[in-house]
Specification:
The complex is a heterodimer of chains A (617) and B (162). Chain A has 617 residues and is an alpha/beta fold. Chain A has five domains: 16-133, Glutaredoxin (3-Layer(aba) Sandwich); 156-361, NADH-ubiquinone oxidoreductase 51kDa subunit (Rossmann fold, 3-Layer(aba) Sandwich); 371-454, Ubiquitin-like (UB roll); 459-547, de novo design (two linked rop proteins) (Up-down Bundle), CATH 1.20.1440; 561-616, 2-Layer Sandwich (Alpha-Beta Plaits), CATH 3.30.70. Chain A contains 26 helices and 19 strands. Chain A has a five-stranded mixed beta sheet. Chain A has a four-stranded mixed beta sheet with strand order 2-1-3-4, covered by helices on one side. The longest helix of chain B has 17 residues, at 139-155. Chain B has a four-stranded mixed beta sheet with strand order 2-1-3-4, with helices on one face. The radius of gyration of chain B is 18 Å and the shape is elongated. Chain B is built from seven helices and four strands, in the order H-H-H-H-E-H-H-E-E-E-H. Chain B has two domains: 3-59, no CATH class; 71-159, Glutaredoxin (3-Layer(aba) Sandwich), CATH 3.40.30.10. In chain B, helix 1 (3-10) packs antiparallel against helix 2. Chain B is of the alpha+beta class and 162 residues long. The chains are: A alpha/beta (617), B alpha+beta (162). Chains A and B meet through helix 2, strand 9, strand 11, strand 15 and helix 19 of A and helix 2, helix 4, helix 5, helix 6 and helix 7 of B.
């Protein structure tokens, strides 16, 4: 495709592409995101392509390999339009039938339909699926219609028209004004008002400025940024371009985790395509705007989610934060004014410009506007990516969308906001997804990871998990975080091993207070949150570990013993085969025995036993 | 270590210290790890002191300073995988292969690594074998995966890199 030299040429291309799309009678949209790829969607995509050409349909049916649809648990998933038909768990062997029956004859293949676990009914369309019904998918819905590797697809749905509008008719002040009055707040964790950040960067002195997209997403249990960047990279790029125009930057970086190979690949392709079309480079669309973007791959350090550490990393240095007495909007990358926003924040920008600030701020709660993408995971029925209006109660997300806990167990807590967030108990599920309300409850929206835990999760163990993570990931620059987290971990470990003392709980609180007040960066300051919230809401579990030397959930190794119930064991031998420590003995058809001296309490036998014979006391 | 690949990686990036992480990423992709000699070459060509190259290479988790096994089993230990029992898988792999995280089996076939999140949280626990994802893993499935890889190696032993 040749370079676009004016707004008119972009508009013309948009119409041309739409026209081309009308030639297709049917579109088959198959998810090619990381989740579905793990469930072999690539083989399915190849099979569908082959089947389409074999049946002579490649001219009339469009096979669109899209980014993540969000319902990863049901993958590989596909949608057939028109008709909004939703198929899940589609195997490569189903390709012939899907094309022959559904695409050509319009027949439904019953076994591929989604079965609602609650009503037991099969549902034909995506719109009927409860997982999608309670959502408000402003950003994620675009993932369903575009091939992330095709700039044509993005332009066909009106992509880059927000950029054209900005360049043609808006001054930087107007763009910043629009973003400010939309009350968009940073989606990466802190919830800082985006408009304010942009206006400070715009006002900062200097000709050389930068914009950066933070796609490092080091928060374990969250993957919304991966999904957006991988599924719709042009949307993020367009947001960055508008931001660059507003603050006066000529250069941008996408800082993306190496662990997300598909996101790296797709953003590279997107940048290349945008350069070829002249949407990146000098005099974009014939305007005075000059801007280019490079991809920087992160090295897997959680601390690089912090702005100054991230910038050090883009500069090729060790990712250590520095004091922020002068903010990065003034003194950022290479000591130049820099606007850093998260993937989801950038992705919200084009719609705000196109539809207006009031459209955006009409959604949400008082202080938190728009929608938020959440990664709903853990011990819950429907896991996946969920986008809801801000202000939606946690209860709606966990029960209406998530379908509640697995195996009839009760949901005990939900961990929101990753290692900087906290665990909220089921009693707090009426709280809304709102930056300020969750912060008040001791947690935070963070990047939007929501890990659901049921009664089989021990909250002290979960705390130990986070402290382990934080201790491992602490960059080591400042003492409160490096040593403070280490001490907290030491105490928590003692508690989980039955060596805890009641007075240690006060010591933990004291330590937490010092770490929160004196750490250098935001990650250190919030490091005590997981511990503080579990102590606040699940103190009885801590007390049981300390006073009764018991782990109520049966998780902490130092406080439990495994044994095999001879009445339930039928001697199938699965546990014996599975035990990596050779601690189980027994003859076939006879009940087996665990040698407590050899047993490492790894729990593998318990997870393997189909007869619930392995018990924990 | 053949230096030709490294020359290619350094092309167009010489004397640019800000390219250090990118160059190390590409070096690891080519060689499977970052050899000591490569760090020396990178140091000279980018104009970054060797101690700084080592500091960066050892700071970031993504960099390996020792060769890995032929099959790298990467266990995701993100929160979502953790609450679904990823620690069982780590225990199991370590037990069955007789090595700890970060080590290589004596025959050079396997190494175990862990990563904070692979971003496929909905399908956890995830184990990636040389980058291809296996979802909803259990110790039994992991055992079968390791056995299958071993069998595959026995059938085509010429591919083994000791």
């Amino acid at each position: 495709m040749s370079k676009l030299n004016s707004y008119r040429e972009l508009e013309h291309l948009h119409q041309q592409l739409q026209e081309k799309r009308r030639n297709f009678t049917t579109t088959v949209m198959v998810c090619g995101g990381t989740g579905c790829r793990a469930s072999s969607s690539q083989t399915l995509i190849n099979a569908l392509g082959e089947e389409l050409s074999r049946q002579g349909l490649d001219g009339s049916v469009r096979l669109c390999v899209t980014g993540c649809h969000g319902f990863c648990e049901q993958g590989p998933v596909m949608i057939i339009e028109p008709g909004n038909m939703f198929y899940c768990h589609v195997a490569p062997e189903d390709a012939f039938e899907v094309i022959y029956k559904t695409v050509t004859k319009g027949e439904v293949i019953e076994r591929l339909l989604y079965r609602d676990p609650i009503s037991g009914q099969t549902l034909r369309t995506l719109a009927e699926v409860p997982f999608y019904q309670a959502q408000d998918r402003q950003i994620l819905s675009q993932n369903l219609t575009v091939d992330p590797c095709s700039i044509e697809d993005y332009i066909a749905i009106g992509g880059y028209s927000a950029l054209a509008k900005t360049l043609r008719s808006m001054t930087p002040e107007e763009v910043i004004g629009e973003i400010s009055s939309s009350v968009l707040r940073g989606r990466g964790g802190g919830g800082f008002p985006t408009g304010r950040k942009w206006s400070q960067c715009w006002a900062a002195p200097g000709d050389e400025k930068y914009v950066i997209c933070n796609a490092d997403e080091g928060d374990p249990g969250a993957y919304m940024d991966r999904c957006v960047l991988e599924g719709n990279p042009h949307l993020v790029l367009e947001g960055m371009m508008i931001g660059a125009w507003a603050v006066g930057a000529r250069k941008g970086y996408i800082y993306v985790r190496k662990e997300y190979p598909l996101a790296v690949e797709h953003s590279r392709i997107a940048v290349q395509q945008a350069r070829e079309l002249g949407l990146l480079g000098d005099n974009v669309l014939g305007s005075s705007f000059c801007f280019d973007v490079d991809i920087a791959r992160g090295g897997g350090a959680f601390v690089c989610g912090e702005s100054t550490a991230l910038m050090a990393s883009v500069e090729g240095k060790v990712g250590e934060p520095r004091p922020k007495d002068v903010h990065t909007v003034v003194d950022g990358l290479y000591h130049k004014p820099t606007t850093l926003n998260n993937v989801e924040t950038w992705a919200n920008v084009p719609s705000i410009i196109l539809k207006g600030a009031s459209w955006f701020s009409a959604k949400g709660s008082r202080g938190s506007k728009g929608t938020k993408i959440l990664a709903l995971t853990g011990r819950i029925k429907n896991t996946g990516l969920v986008e809801v209006e801000m202000g939606t109660p946690i209860r709606t997300v966990v029960y209406d969308i998530g379908g509640g806990a697995l195996n009839g167990k009760a949901v005990k807590a939900v961990q929101i906001g990753g290692p900087s967030g906290g665990c909220l108990p089921a009693g707090k599920f009426d709280l809304p997804i709102d930056f300020d309300v969750l912060a008040e409850a001791g947690s935070m929206v963070g990047s939007g990871g929501m890990v659901v835990m049921d009664e089989s999760s021990c909250m002290v163990d979960v705390t130990k998990y986070f402290l382990n993570f934080l201790q491992d990931e602490s960059c080591g620059k400042c003492v409160p975080c490096r040593l403070g987290v280490d001490r907290m971990l030491e105490i928590i470990t003692a508690i989980t091993e039955g060596r805890g003392k009641p007075e240690q709980l006060d010591l933990l609180e004291e330590l937490a207070d010092t770490i929160a007040q004196t750490s250098l960066c935001g990650l250190g300051k919030t490091a005590p949150n997981p511990m503080l919230t579990t102590l606040r809401y699940f103190r009885t579990e801590y007390e049981a570990h300390i006073n009764e030397r018991k782990c109520p959930a049966g998780v902490c190794k130092g406080l439990i013993t495994y044994w095999i119930d001879p009445d339930k064991c039928n001697g199938c031998g699965v546990c014996l085969q599975g035990c990596p420590h050779k601690a189980i003995t027994g003859k076939k058809q006879q009940s087996h025995v665990i040698d407590p001296k050899l047993c490492q309490k790894c729990g593998i036998c318990r997870s393997e036993c189909k007869f619930d014979a392995v018990q924990v006391i | 270590m053949s230096s030709q690949e490294l020359e290619q990686i350094l092309e167009g990036r010489r004397s640019q210290p800000n390219q250090l992480i990118e160059v190390l990423q590409d070096t690891q992709e080519s060689y499977g790890y970052i050899p000591r000699e490569a760090m020396q070459v990178v140091s000279l060509n980018l104009g970054v002191p060797i101690i700084e190259v080592y500091r960066v290479a050892s700071f970031y988790k993504a960099f390996r300073l020792k060769p890995s096994g032929k099959h790298v089993l990467t266990m995701c230990t993100g929160t979502a995988c953790h609450v679904r029992g990823s620690h069982l898988l780590l225990d199991y792999a370590a037990g069955q292969l007789g090595i700890k995280t970060g080590e290589v089996t004596p025959d050079g076939l396997f190494s175990i690594e862990h990563v904070n999140c692979l971003g496929a949280c909905a399908l956890g626990p995830i184990v990636a074998e040389n980058g291809s994802y296996h979802h909803h893993m259990t110790p039994a499935k992991l055992r079968k995966l390791i056995e299958a890889l071993r069998r595959q190696e026995k059938e085509a032993p010429q591919n083994v890199q000791a």
